[in-house]
Write a structure and sequence with these properties.
The protein has 7 helices and no strands.
Length: 194
């Protein structure tokens, strides 16, 4: 019998919890960004990068911090939830960051495109930049340290080992190679009735 070591139930719990939280967060983001606004007038779309951020900075430090913080925080949880749903511990940090940043940018772009059809909402390219930056910052702040902690914990996972030294996953998940049982049987040709 040959055994293959899996990440264990902790990795499965992280993936399931990450998936549930990801769906909940995306539903909240959709509700916040895609519901119609009843406003007397709307500003024109901002298609010039950093123009909206400059306008926010002109409003004063407090108002600028609030508006820029909202842009950074809107999709920031995706920086942690997307890698959690992916569920791999042994992955290149740079590849994980790039995948997460691209996914965050695409989700932000999708929101911006959907907002074009919602009354009272306008497209702002700076929101795309701020949302993507928030995803990247959250990823850099949490994911590498979290993965390192989980790898250390799995490497020293002797607390739930059985009497023969097997971990929980090794006791319940086994990969068996079955011995060859001879030639594959063949069926003789059967004629077709007229």
């Amino acid at each position: 019998m040959q055994r293959q070591r899996f990440g264990g139930s902790a990795t499965i719990r992280i993936r399931v919890t990450g998936g549930v939280l990801l769906v909940a967060h995306l539903a909240l983001v959709a509700w916040l960004t895609l519901r119609p606004l009843d406003v007397p007038w709307v500003t024109p779309p901002n298609l010039h990068p950093l123009a909206g951020i400059r306008a926010d900075l002109a409003l004063g430090a407090r108002e600028a911090a609030r508006r820029i913080g909202e842009g950074l925080a809107l999709l920031a949880p995706l920086g942690v939830l997307l890698p959690a749903v992916h569920g791999r511990l042994a992955v290149s940090p740079l590849a994980s960051l790039i995948r997460t940043a691209v996914a965050g940018a695409l989700i932000s772009l999708g929101i911006a495109l959907l907002q074009t059809g919602v009354p009272g909402r306008v497209v702002d390219v700076d929101s795309l930049l701020l949302n993507t930056a928030g995803v990247v910052l959250a990823h850099l702040a949490v994911v590498p340290a979290g993965r390192a902690w989980l790898r250390r914990r799995d490497a020293g996972d002797v607390g739930d080992a059985g009497e023969d030294g097997d971990t929980w996953a090794e006791r319940f998940v086994t990969v068996r190679e079955e011995p060859a049982q001879g030639r594959t049987p063949t069926i003789p040709r059967v004629g077709i009735a007229p």
